[in-house]
Amino acid sequence: NVALPVVYAVAFSAAQKAGGGRVTRDALQQTLEFSGLPRHVTGQIVLTADTGADSLAQRDFNLALAMVALAQKNMSPTLESVMFHKEDLPVPELDGVETLISSSNMHSSMPPGRGRLDAPDDPWSSASAGPGAVASSTAALGSMSLATNGTETASLPANADSTKKEHQQRTAGRDSSASQTFVPGINMDELQWKLDKEDVSIKESAERGGIVFKHTNYEISTRSFSSMVVRRYRDFDWISNYLVTRYPYRMHANIPPKGFPDNRIKGLTRFASAILRIPFLRRDALVIQFFTNTDEFGHVLKVGNLDMEAEDIDVEDELGSTPWPEVQQTYAAFDDFYAQVARDEERYRTQITSLEKIARYKQAIGDELNVYSDTMRLINAPRESVSGSRKFHVQAASKRTLDSNLNELSMSFSDASLLEKAHGEVQKTISAEYLRRVYDVVISMKLMMDRMRRMEKRKDIQRVSERNDANRKAMAQLNGESPVPDSDRSSTDRLERLLREDAAELQLLNHEQRCIEARFYLELARYKCYESFLQTHYHGYIEEQIKHHTMTLNAWKQALSTADDLPTDPLGFIS
Length: 575
Fold this sequence. Notes:
Elements: H1 6-18, H2 25-32, H3 39-49, H4 58-72, H5 79-84, H6 103-108, H7 137-141, E1 143-146, E2 152-155, H8 160-179, E3 200-204, E4 217-222, E5 227-232, H9 233-246, H10 264-277, H11 279-282, H12 285-292, H13 297-303, H14 315-319, H15 324-332, H16 334-376, H17 397-455, H18 458-480, H19 489-529, H20 533-564
Antiparallel strand pairs: 1-2, 3-4, 4-5
């Protein structure tokens, strides 16, 4: 039994209505069309859930919906993923599915106030709660136990409404103050701050490219573009260099090095997803071609009319009403901010290393608990010698009870082993992975500031200004001679030309420096906005700790009950 939101019951009723009283394969396919997923994805889910019978049981239907929910969150829609996330499944979104059943039937099968399918308490879609709240999603919706025979019982916790009201009161002030903050020039699309969201799925292609020298191809599926293209690592590298050239004064995704170990696909997925989270990159024409054009990317680059010039920035338009002295003061503290970013880099790198160590320790603890468990099983116990008195080789009642209970304890230790290993895997694949994405943002900021340091124009402005001042003095001296000798006319013309060139160069350099300072001001604001994701990370991390320790405590309590039943009478072992 797994607690499920009401949308599962609503969708099942809709599928029954569409199938004429039973859930057929076609009725399931028709119901899943309301998910908004591509047809090939829903078709694969139907194939997975179909048992070959005339109609689907409610249990199999629920599995299909669970896979839909995972696919909508850009996770793998497989039975293995459902089992892994069974305690924190997202809520499937099936907008409009209620049109398949009558309004009266739908309302009669739902608890009061729970009729909406876009469940507001779904932590995967709520703006106020990140994916770290996944484990509490079903609790907030009420506990619905769906048995294998299709019967259901629903109940709301007595304190559910009060808990929700308290949460709303705690966040109301914070949300209202945040809504009043506006930084001109920054697209506040929430998607870019949600580092857990992945719009891209990458897998290694079965076919290798190249005629003589083979290379690995990657199949890239993008949900937002509903596309699938094949690219090689060189294409990823090219798009990364393009972003640096086209947007030198912005933070953007960083490609993992070519020689990094087995997690290349994971690194490329992080890179591609980071690109599509950023609004201005999602609109870039070449980025769109990279994710949607099915031709070889090298061919796209040859025939395309590519704009490789660095973007031009309208400083006044992007800054809006922000006072220019504020921008200058912020840029004046450039070195201080760089030191802060360096500290952030060290801090997150240390945290990731610690989480990876904890994950390895958990795996080691799980392995040792499993070894300990094996030694307690009767089948693995050393055989007793048959020499000597026969009396002591006849098992007493206490010995038989002991062996039976030790076998049960062995199972409890084995369960504890699995819990520790699972916890270690979560630490490594979720908690540490989230921190790596924050770390990627820090590295992006640091690399951008390094580029700004190399490209800043203050020294060039000073050099041209000094040269311009010298030419002006020389011109003043020549103009002071009356009349100007014909021999000096050529010198005057030359100085006038140099002064015009210096004025044009100074204008260009000052514009470029203003662009750098304005972009630093805006990107620093974006960098700070990314810290909002830490709530998702730490909420999820702490919630996972609570869940793990609760399950571990229950496992050890069960083991304690078995241990208390072990015989304690010494004579019982020899009688």
